[in-house]
Amino acid sequence: MKRTVWITGATAGIGEATARLLAKNEFRLIISGRRNDRLEHLADELKAHTEILSICLDVRDREAVFNAAENLPENWKNIDVLINNAGLAVGLGPAHEGDPDDWDRMIDTNIKGVLNMLKAITPGMIARKKGHIIQISSIASKEVYPNGNVYCATKHALDAITQSIRMELLPYHIKVSSIHPGMVETEFSLVRFKGDAERASNVYKPVEALKAEDVANTILYCLNAPEHVSIHELVVMPAAQATVRLVRKKDGSI
Question: Which residues are catalytic?
Answer without folding.
Answer: 151
